[in-house]
UniProtKB/TrEMBL annotation:
The keyword Ion transport does not apply. It comes from the Eukaryota. It catalyses: Release of any N-terminal amino acid, including proline, that is linked to proline, even from a dipeptide or tripeptide. This is Xaa-Pro aminopeptidase. PANTHER family: XAA-PRO AMINOPEPTIDASE 3 (PTHR43226:SF4). Its EC number is 3.4.11.9. One of its GO terms (molecular function) is manganese ion binding. Pfam families: AMP_N, Peptidase_M24. Its cofactor is Mn(2+). It is an enzyme of class 3 (hydrolase). The keyword Oxidoreductase does not apply.
Amino acid sequence: MSTRRTLWQTLRRANDVLHPHPWRLTHVSSRQTPLLPRLYNTLTVNAADLSFGQPVHETHPHLLQPGELTPGITAQEYADRRTNLAAKLPDKAIAIIAASDIQFRTGSVFYEFHQDPDFLYLTGFNEPEALAIIGKDSTGKDHTFHLFVREKDPKAEIWDGARSGTNAARDVFNADETGDITKLNQLLPNILGEASEVYTDITSPNANQSVLQRFLYGQSRKSTTFAELLKNSKVNRLRPVMNDLRAFKSAAEIELMRKAGKASGRAHTDAMRKTWTREKELDTYIRYRFAANGCDTLAFEPVVAGGKNALSIHYIRNDDVLHDDEFALVDGGGKYGGYIADITRTWPVNGKFSDAQRDLYEAVLKVQRTLISLCRGSASVSLDKLHSIAEEQLSNELRQIGFDMSFKAIESLFPHHLSHYIGMDVHDTVGYSRKVLLQEGHCITIEPGIYVPDDERWPKHFRNMGIRIEDSVSIQEDTPFVLTTEAVKEVVDIEALRA
């Protein structure tokens, strides 16, 4: 056996010498706060002296408040989410959710780690190579929580940074049972054998080669794979169950989205104040301002499109020249505490609207205002209903400024859907129906747009203009809560920024 010990092991040994009774970390049965790890009697260890694979309050009090596992979200809220999931499962059924794995650009050069949103939503654990198993407890009123993670490994941590390990999985992240992910093949059969049904989305092959991925996706030649262990189980998709949970945001989640929206909105307004000649310069600036205003990272790759480049909805090359007589369209947002903002603003490169630019812009803005006013539970509308309203109103507005709107012209000029759900992902809860009536707690985008190709069918002075105006909105019962108000959008306000 190696003589190298982790700090946890050293502390266990020291405590055993001082006190003959079994060593353990103090447990918080209420699940209300992550633990300040300490030993019994006289030997006390401050968590700030330990290392974890992510910030905790004791090591990063500038990022997390007492009781929070991730910024803005408490250990109690994570426990409540698991309980809510367990309540949707049949008796003795379990849900199995895998963490994301590290993605590599080439060789050992990796991309920024992005945790699987369902896994993060349920655990607050933000490391790769981990597996969560959640089910009902024996009372049927609470949940059981297994969390398998990478064990502490001083040699590996020299290269890859700290890991939280199995002790923190139990004492910080409140797992009832934990274990080393490398021993999953030995730990999982008993759990599966006792389950009546299994809910999981671990179904597709994956090329990653981590211990967890090799096990889950059948790439291990020496041991039983996850698929083989599941062969005698009744397996169901977890996605619809998770969508029903994640579609409704808590007050804490909405507050995080508001913070992301405020920081992102200010970045857009800051960008409008300045004169730009290259898309790449504007792209670089908006990324910087998201971070400078308080966001953790980007919500998605920004669109920075000048002139006709805006006719491509997901244009992300961002490498062209910006011309004075054209629009600049910027679609981008930041992420804070795991939650995103999604904003699009369009403005004249030279800061002053021409008559044609103003006419087309005001047409889109007028419709956006109307649609935002309908973002309330009492309006009894769905995303699809809002889209139909958008098509009708945009058609009317365009007709008044000289467009021929016959033969379903609106489908050519407005080719994307008006809205999508937002939250931890920019397109949140994939598969959740757009026909569901919007209710308090839903969070969506409202983004009407008009994209005029260089085609003789359309008025010449509008050709090659692309305009999209997008805000993030939280549905309240009687009034919309716009999360991105700091991004100005009125013509007079945009022009005043450089007046």
